[in-house]
Amino acid sequence: MHIPTALASLLPLCLLVDGIQLPAPSGPYNVGFTQHIFNHSTPDDPTPGPGTFYLTSIYYPTRASPAPNSSVPYFDPTSAAIWGEVFNILPADLQSLETTLQWQAPLLSERADVDKLKTWPTLVFGPGGGMNAGYFTSLLSELASQGYTVLALDHPGEAPYLALPYGNPGVVGWDIYMPYSDALVVEIYEFRRADLLHLLGPDGFPALVETYGAYFNAAAYGAFGHSIGGAAATGAMDRDSSIGAGFNIDGGLFGDSVNASMRGRPYFMTMNPNHFAQDADSWPLFAESYYNESKTAPGWLDWTTVEGSAHLAFSDVSLWVELLPQIPNTTAQVDLGNVTGSRMDALLKTYAGAFWEFVRGGEYDTALLEGEVKEWPEVVFNAKVRSNGTQRH
Fold first, then answer.
1. Is 232 a domain residue?
2. Selection from 133, 130, 149 nearest residue 60 by Cα
3. How many Å from the N-terminal Cα to the C-terminal Cα in the chain?
4. Stretch 180-198: mean pLDDT, rounded?
5. For residues 99 and 76, what is the distance between their CA atoms, to the nearest angstrom?
6. Is 301 within a domain?
7. Distance (Å, whole) CA 304 – CA 381
């Protein structure tokens, strides 16, 4: 594994940032956070990890008020050093990022809250390849603040480093600069899909909910993810009918996810414009297949492009670069497009929020979900599918 050299000699060149907070969630609830390690073996695991478990981070609504200086840290020191080198940001500056997450805050207990939220689908998220789920904290916190329970999966050994809770040693994974072959991408997709399906199975989240007597919904889910996490969500939907909807965030479809059948379940797919060149087949083929299914069954699909965006702009990474100073006379080594981090953050929260609101049976935002709007000119609709094959671009 590649571990960057010490950057202490550069400290005088750049003043450290003191306590930079991610965009605050806008929902009516504060956000609690806990983690659980699920035992699950991955046959022939290709990663350097143990292949015997995965980590699930749980974001959930709480009425508890945050205590000063008690939020869950965003970065651990090892990961800050690794990712700081890629984006030319001092590790100490990355570690200055603050969340509003409260470690194991009390669950909602008021009857009005529980009765309202216990039927909402639990949302299951997968990060992009080689990334930690925590690098999507801004979006996941926002959804939890609105009332959703959100489960985020990490497969130890895939990301360069994964810190583990409860005193367990962290897991060193693949080098951050390691190239991914087509065959390896399919392997990652397959173990990601297997982790997700195990989480939803009887020995996963349902058993955890029963053990702790939580009100969380362990019977109805929504699946979403970034990059290969979006593909895994799609493949899992093909196999598990408890997943009622999917949201694919800039994720090409790999393996058998290209041919996944949604059976009329709502599906939102959004991408950066480079996908038209880099992934010319899988998204159009998927949309065509969905359209053909919808001729004889219910259906709802939106397929959008965010003009000016790039792949990692759909994660917290674009916020790191916007909020934190880079080491002088350097530039980030990864293209983030020309949409600012705060703009992308707000955009993704807006569209994801509208989609999951619709899925859970709440208000349908006709403006956002039916076509281009002046508030978000970056969002261009490539295709829409509705019941009986209507409204296809």
1. yes
2. 149
3. 46
4. 96
5. 13
6. yes
7. 4
Cα gap 212→120, rounded to integer Å: 19
Q: According to the model, what pLDDT value does residue 361 have?
A: 96
Query: Is there a domain that residue 13 lies in?
Result: no
Who contacts 267 (Cβ-Cβ below 8 Å, separation ≥6)?
234, 237, 245, 246, 247, 248, 290, 300, 301, 302
Residue 11 pLDDT level (bands cut at 50, 70, 90): very low
Total number of domains constituting the chain? 1
Residue 102, domain member (yes or no): yes
Q: Which residue is listed with tokens 């297997």? A: 194
Res. 1 pLDDT band, cuts 50 70 90: very low
Domain span at residue 135? 22-389
pLDDT tens per residue across span 68-96? 778 999 999 999 999 999 999 999 999 99
Q: How far apart are CA 310 and CA 327, in angstroms?
A: 22
